[in-house]
Amino acid sequence: MKLKTLSVAMILATVPMTGAFAAAMDRTGQSISAFLQPGNYAEAGLSVLDADVSGKDADGNNTGDMASSYHSASAALKIQATDNISVGLLFDQPFGAKAEYNTGDHNFSSVNPITSVKEGTSAEVTTENLTLLLGFQPNANWNFYAGPVWQQAKGEVHLRGLAYGGLGAGAYNANMKNDDAWGWAAGVAYQIPEIALKASLTYRSEIKHELSSNENTARNISIGGFDGVTEVTTPQSVNLDLQTGIMENTVAFANVRWVNWDGFSITPPLFGQNVPNASLVEYNKDQWTINTGVGRKFTEKWSGTVSVGWDSGAGNPVTTLGPTEGYWSLGLGAQFSPASNYFIQGGVKYFWLGDAQGLTAIENNVGQFKDNHAIGYGLKFGYKF
């Protein structure tokens, strides 16, 4: 069986790989598919995920939807410098979290004792990555690659209400300022273009950050709070990507991702002093994600994919700042190629988010979160030159 050159593989990389809160703080799946494109190639993409996550607190009150929608940008440039050497620069926003409780629920919101203004619990953590890869292709089949990864990270947290009553009468703030740090990535890829066979295995190292932090509670907000350093290590990961032709103009594909979340924690120093042997955020299980599907080229200009996904989550019970445990997903994608050297991809993915028990460092059980879902949208532009 000899297949025509296909352009349909991995279209759903345009849609978020994970759901909000579905597997710790994993957002993008950290694909390097752009670097493995033939010849010179550039792309830019944007994905949006809108989650609906709600539950009941320990008193049986509805929490309301605490999941804020978010968007994630990506871009890549790959240059085939010689027949044997390639260079790639990849940008993504791999890890993050965004949560907000605004219902007036007394477990997650309170009247600020300083301002007398009604406030709710909220949190946002963001990261940005630049990955520089240098690839060596000894022949048409093999590609060995490695390079440095530069990462920025920052976070802001506001805890309110009875669920966090041990932290200054239920009012705690932390501003973890932007920090830059370095890691690395390496991998190997194998392909047989004639049958649309591609396989790649990519490792990314952990990256250690020291974030300058300002914290305060109701007890010390009037004197400017407490300045310190919060140590955070974003996790190492491994991606296995597979694709093969199964009939003319049709491919099957799969992605398996492992992320080492077990032992991950965020513990600002003042928080640690007030709540010994606890963390603001922590996970106790590694994440496994599997995404598999079929892509088909219908005409010279149109192709599409369908995929299903599963995610293990990163442990249960979980923090109330991300109270779901894994997911199942179903995705659809389409690609339009007006000319042979550029294309537009779009996709949508629906997530059934796993039920979870929400915990805080102050109380053992503050809520049950069930029957939640999310929907993601993605758009990508690619150009071959």
TrEMBL record:
Residues of the signal sequence?
1-22
| SUPFAM superfamilies membership | Porins
Per UniProt, the keywords (alphabetical) are: Signal
Q: What protein does this entry describe?
A: Transporter
Name the lineage.
Bacteria, Pseudomonadati, Pseudomonadota, Gammaproteobacteria, Moraxellales
